[in-house]
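Action item from last meeting closed. Structure (331 res):
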């Protein structure tokens, strides 16, 4: 095999049987993979934590932690859960495979392992890992861009992070699905990413905007949706980005949606956004107290701007655990 044809990837092999370890390592190394071989479950977890493992091959029956337990531990941590895990087993019962699936296993190989089956599974899972790595990289770039917008204005320090935490807390209280909670976490960080398309002299203008400048500013929701649209995993985030400036009476932007036409996730984020703006220092005023902020927001609910039921849930969240106060906030 030429150097050009050699595969790349770091494969973890965990098996307490020396002959099995040597066989698997030999087959994989012949294909150009880098192999890290360990003898028990705890060593496997240590390697996963300290090395950039691309695929983990775990014997089910090992001393100490079993392959099932190691798999479950890998899949339970955000930093390792995308590592593909293959369970190696001589067990033939359906219950064992169901248990492996419940632990998060991506695939199974029966012992004795067949060379072509092993290499085909590893190659397929490595491709999947590459796709998820690319997705992670794309998300990281977007989050970095969002933070760069926040960094331009000292008055918004920590704003995006606070919105993420507030919004997820409200979503938890409302019993929303995990997908929507993740979307709100991401939406809190990325809701204003479209401001990348807004000229700085407008973005950082200390005084009121002219009608022409306001029209440009209001395009940031559409620009933000366009920036994030290529990521299919962001499908629940896009409505938050586009619609977090809509109002219940239809006077918001960009689409003039009314009432329940505005996605619930967008209504949650806009409430947290307004609250954070009111309770944080601004160039034109000092931060308001929590009580004053909620009084203003309740008046705006009466005007037909915000969803009163969401405001009630959010107020209960704030008074329930008192999130960390923004820098420079009032008392």
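Sequence:
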């Amino acid at each position: 095999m030429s150097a050009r044809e050699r595969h790349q990837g770091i494969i973890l092999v965990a098996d307490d049987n020396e002959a099995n370890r040597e066989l698997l390592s030999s087959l994989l190394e012949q294909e150009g993979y880098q192999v890290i071989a360990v003898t028990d479950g705890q060593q496997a977890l240590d390697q996963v934590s300290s090395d950039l493992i691309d695929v983990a091959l775990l014997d089910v029956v090992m001393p100490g932690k079993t392959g099932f337990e190691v798999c479950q531990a890998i899949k339970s941590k955000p930093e390792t859960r995308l590592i593909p895990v293959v369970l190696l087993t001589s067990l033939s019962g359906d219950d064992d495979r169901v248990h492996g699936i419940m632990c998060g296993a991506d695939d199974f190989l029966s012992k004795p392992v067949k060379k072509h089956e092993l290499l085909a599974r590893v190659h397929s899972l490595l491709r999947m890992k590459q796709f998820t790595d690319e997705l992670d990289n794309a998300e990281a770039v977007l989050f970095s861009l969002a933070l760069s917008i926040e960094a331009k204005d000292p008055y918004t320090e920590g704003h995006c992070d606070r919105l993420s935490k507030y919004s997820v807390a409200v979503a938890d209280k409302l019993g929303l699905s995990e997908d929507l909670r993740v979307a709100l976490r991401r939406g809190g960080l990325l809701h204003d990413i479209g401001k990348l398309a807004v000229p700085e002299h407008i973005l950082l203008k200390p005084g009121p905007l002219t009608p022409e400048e306001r029209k440009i500013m209001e395009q940031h929701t559409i620009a933000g949706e366009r920036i994030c649209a290529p990521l299919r995993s962001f499908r629940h985030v896009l409505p938050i980005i586009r619609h977090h400036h809509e109002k219940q009476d239809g006077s918001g932007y960009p689409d003039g949606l009314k009432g329940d036409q505005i996605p619930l996730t967008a209504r949650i984020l806009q409430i947290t956004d307004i609250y954070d703006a009111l309770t944080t220092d601004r160039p034109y005023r000092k931060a308001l107290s929590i009580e004053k902020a909620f009084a203003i927001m309740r008046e705006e609910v009466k005007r037909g701007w915000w969803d009163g039921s969401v405001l009630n849930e959010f107020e209960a969240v704030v008074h329930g655990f008192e999130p960390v106060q923004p820098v420079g906030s009032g008392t």
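Note appended to the action item: The chain has two domains: 3-132, 152-321.
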